[in-house]
C-alpha cells in the first residue's frame, strides 16, 4: 500500500487491472438510449459527411446518395400495396442481391428501405419500439399518421449530420389504409402513390399509366410487380427479388417474392405470343 | 389522524403505509360535482360568496383544457392554475405529434402523473387540488374522471369531491340512473340537486357547465339556473307534503 508505493514496488495486480480496462467495451450510448448516437468528431458546420471525405491524393470523394434501389407503394380500394426490389450496392459493387427492404414495424405497419440500409433499419426498429410502447400505454393501436410523425421527428434532430433514408410508412388504422413518405431531410407527406429510389423514374412510368383506385387485389399486385420489374430491367442499381406486400384490415400479408430474372422471361413470353 | 412525526416530510411513509402530507392535501378541497349522461357531461361547482367590490369573473373554477375537454377543480386555485396550464400545453403537443385530439384518459393520466411526481420528490409539497375532468373522446363517448392530490385517477358515471363529498356521493348513488341522465335537462337537474344537498340553496351559489359532443362548452346563465333551482325547490316541497299526508 503506502509503503509499497513509497519504495516504487509495483504489484502484479496493477498490470492485471490495466489489461482488464483495455479489454472492457467502451460505453455504447445507444444500448440504453436509442437517441444517443455517437457524433462524428467534427464541428457541426462540417458535418455533411458527403462533402468531407477525401481520397489518398486529396481529391474530394463524392458519396453516391442517390438511394440505389426501387421501392414503391400505393393506396387503392382494397387497402395498400408495397413492392420493392432487393439489390444493395456500394458504388458499382453489388453488395447483396437478397436484401429485405420491407421492414415489419408491427403486424399492421410496414416501412420500406431506401438510401442507407443501416440508417433505415436502425430508425425503423426504434420506431417499432415506440409504436409498441404507445400501444401498451394507450391501449389502442397507433395511427399511421402518428407513427410516421414519430419517425420524421426522430430523424429531423439529425438533419445535417449525414443520415440518408427515404422510407414509406404504410399501415392500417381507424381511418383505413395510410401511406406516408418520410425522408432524412425532414419531409413527411401523405399520398396515394409513391416510388422512392434510383429506379423510381421507371417505376413511376408503369405505375402512373396503370393505376386506378378501383383495381382488384390481383390487378394491384400485378401492377406493383410489373413496375418494380421494369425498374430492375433498366436501372443498374435495382435488381434481385421482387417482393410484394398487401396491407388490409387485418394487417399486412406477404403476397409474392419472385426473382426479377424469372419475371423477365415470363413477360417476354407474353410479348412473343401476341406477336 | 394524530399529528405524528411522520407527517413532516412528504416522502416518508408512516408505519401503516400512509403518506400523511398527501392525505392532508385532500382536506384542502371544496365541493365539486360531475355527472356523465348519454350524450352530455355536466360539471357543477360551489361558488363562494364574493365580496361586493370583487369582480365576479376572476374566480373561475371550471376551465376548458381543449375544445372537447372540461375540467373543474376543488382546492387551491393557484395550484390548479399550474395544472391547467400544463394540461393545455400537453393537449396541443399531443395534437401536433399524433395528429389527433387527446383522449380523456390520456389527459387525465398526464395530470395524474404530474401530481404523483410531487408526492415523490423532496422539497416540494403535493398539489392541493382534486380535479374532475369531463368531456368526449373523438368517437363521441363521454367520460368523467376524478384525480386526487396523490395522483390516482378513477373513472365515474357521477361523482363529487371536496368537503362533504360523502353525502353528495350517497345522494348520487340513490338517484343516478341511466334514464335520469338520458336527457340534458335530467342530467343538469341531478347535478344541481346533488350539490344543493350540501350547499346553501340559491342560484347564486352554484356554477354549472355543460358539454355536448362536437359543441363548445356552455355555462348556464343565471336565469336558467334560477328556473332550475326553483323547480327543484318546488319538487322538494311537494315531496315533503306527500310525506306529511302519509303520516
Automatic annotation (TrEMBL), chain A:
GO CC terms, sorted: cytoplasm; nucleus; proteasome core complex
GO molecular function, one term: threonine-type endopeptidase activity
Cellular localisation: Cytoplasm; Nucleus
InterPro entries: Ntn_hydrolases_N, Pept_T1A_subB, Proteasome_bsu_CS, Proteasome_sua/b, Proteasome_suB-type
Record-linked SUPFAM superfamilies: N-terminal nucleophile aminohydrolases (Ntn hydrolases) (SSF56235)
Keywords from the named record: Cytoplasm, Hydrolase, Nucleus, Protease, Proteasome, Threonine protease, Zymogen
Active-site residues annotated for this sequence: 69
TM annotation in the entry: none
Any single GO BP term: proteolysis involved in protein catabolic process
Entry keyword Hydrolase: yes
Coiled-coil ranges per UniProt: none
Annotated function: Non-catalytic component of the proteasome, a multicatalytic proteinase complex which is characterized by its ability to cleave peptides with Arg, Phe, Tyr, Leu, and Glu adjacent to the leaving group at neutral or slightly basic pH. The proteasome has an ATP-dependent proteolytic activity.
Family: Belongs to the peptidase T1B family.
PANTHER family, per database record: METALLOPROTEASE TLDD, PROTEASOME SUBUNIT BETA
Subunit note: Component of the proteasome complex.
Entry protein name: Proteasome subunit beta
Organism: Scylla paramamosain (Mud crab)
